[in-house]
């Protein structure tokens, strides 16, 4: 993530899942206009960099498609909540979530993540069983 495109104005590295990386490669190979500025990944159909308003319009169109599919009140920003909650539930530490999410304060991690259901917690090793190298049966 480049500093000039980041809300925090700081550069950071962000991992990309294989499935997402494959989708980006497909976009570049099959859909991305050949013309335009090479520094930008996503370009308009004319090969120009998206403006803030252009990207807002694009997201609004996606929202309309979701609504037509029966998904109400979709907002792009909810993807950050979903990502943070999924990362937490997958076992990432709050420190790693904050780093990848671009947050300086762990309070933002708390704000964006949701607690695991107790039934899910029961399936995880307890701190003691982890130290002893045992699993719960």
What would you note in describing this structure?
With 137 residues, this protein is an all-alpha fold. 51% of the residues lie in helices and 0% in strands. It has 7 helices and no strands. It has helices at residues 18-31, 52-68, 78-89, 94-101, 106-112, 118-123, 127-132. Helix 4 crosses helix 5 (106-112). The longest helix has 17 residues, at 52-68. The protein is elongated, with a radius of gyration of 19 Å. The termini are far apart. The mean pLDDT is 84.
Q: What does this entry show, briefly?
A:
With 137 residues, this protein is mainly alpha-helical.
> What percentage of the residues does DSSP assign to strands (E)?
under 5%
Low-confidence spans: none
Question: What's the overall geometry?
Answer: elongated
Tally the helices. Answer: 7
Helical amount:
40-55%
What value does the Rg take, in angstroms? 19 Å
Taking the alpha carbons of the first and last residues, their distance comes to 42 Å
Number of strands: 0
Note the main sheet: none
What kind of oligomer do you see?
single chain
Q: Please, what is the average pLDDT? A: 84
Produce the secondary structure layout:
Blueprint (H helix, E strand, L loop, with lengths): L17 H14 L20 H17 L9 H12 L4 H8 L4 H7 L5 H6 L3 H6 L5
Helix pairs in contact: 4-5
Can you give keywords for this protein?
elongated, single chain, mainly alpha, 137 residues, 7 helices
